[in-house]
Predict the 3D structure of the following.
Amino acid sequence: MSVSAPRCLLWSNDEPVVLDDYVSEEPRWCTGCGDLAILAAVQRLCRDEQLAREKIVFVSGIGCSSRFPHYMNTYGFHGLHGRALPVAEGIRIKRPDLHVFVNTGDGDCCSIGAAHWIHAIRYNMNMTVLLHDNEIYGLTKKQVSPTSPKGLASNTTPRGAYLDSLNPMETTLGVANVSFAAQAVDWAPGLLYDIISKAYKHPGCSFVRVLQRCPEYLPEHFDHWMDDPDQLLLLTHEDGMQVTPDLARIYKQQEIHDPMDLNRAREIASMKDRIPVGILYRNEQVPCYEDVLNPAGLFTPEVVRTNIEAELDKFTVWPAS
Amino acid sequence: MNVSIKQLIRFHVTGENADEQQMDDRGLRPALLAPYRDLTSLRYDYPLILVQGEREETSVRSLSSIVDELLQETAPHGIEGERMRKHCFRLETRIRALATRQVQGSLAELWDIAALELVSESDEETAWSLTKELNHARQRVPANGTVVDCDEKVTSVLLEHLWRRTYRARSHDALKRLDQLSAQLSQILEADFQTTRAARTPESLKGSMGAGVDDTFDFVALSDMLEKGARNSSVTERRRQRISAALAALQAQPFFVPESEGQNESDDGAARDFVFSSCTDAWHAFEAHTPAKIELLKAIATAELEIDNRYDESEHDELLAGFSEASLTQEDLDFFPSYLICMHIEACQGSEKAKLIELLCSGLPMKVLVETDDILAEPSLCEGQFTFGARSQQLATMTIGLNNAFVLQTTSSCLYQTRDRIECGLTYEGPALFSVYAGSHTNITDLPRYLTAASATQSRAFPTFTYDPALGADQATRFDVDDNPQAQTDWPLQNLAYEDEDLQRVSQDITFTFVEFAACDTRYARFFATVANQGSEDVLVPCGEYVTSSEGENGNKVPFVLMVDAEDVLQTCIVDDKLIQAARRCREMWHSLQELGGIHNSHAMRLLELERNEWEQEKEREIEQLKLQADTAPIEPGDQPIVDQVSAPPQDAPAADPEPVPEEPPSSDEAYIETPRCTTCDECTDLNGKLFAYDENKQAYIADITAGSYRELVEAAEICQVAIIHPGKPLNQAEVGLSDLIERAEEFS
Ligand SMILES: Cc1ncc(C[n+]2csc(CCOP(=O)(O)OP(=O)(O)O)c2C)c(N)n1
Ligand code: SF4
Ligand code: SF4
Ligand SMILES: [Mg+2]
């Protein structure tokens, strides 16, 4: 709804935004860090979608990856360890006009923030969640994380991690109301971009796990997967990811997977021999918490005041006359 | 009485009536209507309940559907629930009778009256259990609202009820949006104020803490500290005025009113400004509203631009000043309430008619109900040909021709069935015409309105159809005649069961034609004559059959309809040829509606015929050819018979997706980067930011091959984790250590 005839005129003074407009300070990540690839893909998406910088916000917790908002020339909130998601939910409720992105690490999301993660998936509020999963605590210098594979030697597990790792895709796909779950790797930028862009367009909580290299502490960790493109299994579908001929030439292992098929998505998620890349699950019919709540009116200061007064009035004791 | 065949034919051809008994002095009605003598004892669509409350999914319900739902929920299955069901059905009948007697009220009110009547008529013991059961049920009635019967007002009352619902929904959405804009606009001013010195004085700080603050805070000290960070307002005076003006316009708009609890349906303020009984009045109101609409739309645009911080005075001041009536778009108009006009066809004459057509052509959201209660004209006025429903039907078909208006033609007996279509028309973006036959008024028939309305539908005298441009671009999706009974046929076939003179049960299917409909109208009685059946069986033909046969086939036959008298005794009535002619025209008109609705479409049938002929010819040719081949070739066991091979459906062609030819990589002599695979890891750009640079997607490419050494190229190739840098052959043959470098570069060629 608006004055539509001259609307195009009214709104026509916008200069096209270029990628550099989304760039703020020089990233302090190590050279070779996979976070740089994620940053580039996100900046490209913002440029391609011509997102107004004041209409998007990046929210993060604590960790190397959580420095992401500093590097975006948009709104941002670098919050508390593990608490990116509740902050993002608050923003979503109060500022429905903003698109919310969340950047969280494997420690931030799957360890200290795990409770928030489960409920964020269940709430299904419209936001794009990027899990930068380097399978290690990077910022605190190589401590074991829930996603570190069993046997990984770290500063906290010098004799190797004791437990089987947690699989973030299996976990996400097991939560009620899940509506979008995808997996990407930072070293396949075309696919990464495509997946993040599909996540951005999904109406609901879109969860994307990005396997991310940390050359500083785990320099050869992903080499086995990276050196041989056949280690990736591309999930393609007419309703999911479609692969260009160039990429198809590199990544020959492909499976046609319907993103509505939750059972198959769970099987794919638990695959051990290959890294599935693409959209595992997408269901646009799952309602968003903010729409279900659908507050009847606006909570202006006046409304809040009146409501509080009304509550307090219930306890008023009138002096006996 | 026995009459000669000659006499019968004479009546049929000339309408002259020598000895036969004329129909109207016998109180006859079509035999198929015999079971509907007492409507109150039947469970049918009426009375309707105009349900109150926005949360209800349906806003119109039939009494029967409510009682059924109630019983489903409350009466136990099987024998235990039997008494409850019996009581509730008795009560339903009583409420229906009250509605027929025009007793006004809500369902709850009529329920109480009916319950009281039933209890007072029962003996003491039954009264007790009746009261108990009915009270129990009364608590659980799933919906309440005004009860309306199928009377002369029902269509306009129902339409207004549904229109109000759309008005309230639109009001609700618009107010939500406007409140949001107002709140966000006020926040701009408020946020600005909070940065100024005025907001940080001790008084102002104290005020912001609310009442009941004691001396815990030293507001003077607080103010001293906060004042240091204060600055002057950054909102210019011009901007402040613009925001204040937009705020005032958003808040003062007269079009939408907030709902208040327990509000009376017919009393929701602004709605009165949008409901009319004449097109001219509605048009005047529309014109009078336009300036205020423009102001509101300008305020909305200003607010949206301000909130997004995009208002550019050098550009937007002029654009908004130039905003006028001509700039209003369909989308803008749809933001505001639509206009409802309810009128009788009699009022639709002269200038009103011209205005009506103007409104329907205008594309404006004008919802017009045109009602009629006489579709058969006075027969004496048009001796040559009877016109039936001409004015209303012409209006509806003409409006279809306008292409952009929604049209629903129906009768009041179908209102419940077509309620969703009515809602579609009311929410349709643009004009809508509802042409409704409300049943005949009582001075031309002895039947209740519901019956004449239903007869008009059955007999195709006033068929139901919808034309909804919102559904698609072509006629097939827009036009619909499916709401008519047995829409595939000329006239619906219905079963008539009766006892003959020998008290034997007879059951036969007969059609309810236009002639039966005319027989309900007392003015047409003289076109019928009752005759004795005996002796004339060879001559008499049922009317439906007679009308559909050609003149030649009918020869010396005489058409008849079956009627019943007040005692439900079956009578055979022969029919004047003038009515038969009218019935034929009615059938032709129905055929053209059927065609529009895709039934027996002549174009499609012709095309089908053509295709079928071509297909058959081709197949024949192929069979001939195969036979010829078969004569010459030896037959293998298990061969498919030739004819099967020919007529087997064509197999799907294999997917002919040509494999795209991948681009050739450059020759291995040249240095290059597989840029689309670059992960922006900064390794190469850190090494030499001139040799390597990022493109517009932030992916590396060789920007200037002369800006670095071959050594750097090779080293970059070695550190690139995704191994996409290819150093090629060295350009400078004089570079030191070349042979070693060339060897190391081998791996990346
Ligand atoms: C409440 C709290 N506990 C612990 C820490 C210490 N801490 C900082 S970052 C971090 C883990 C970061 O790992 P991850 O989320 O995987 O991010 P990465 O650095 O790997 O990108 C920890 C434990 C903290 N900042 N706050
Ligand atoms: S420590 Fe690892 S995760 Fe952190 S910036 Fe460096 S490479 Fe990236
Ligand atoms: S080293 Fe490779 S991946 Fe890294 S920026 Fe250069 S080309 Fe891209
Ligand atoms: Mg980590």
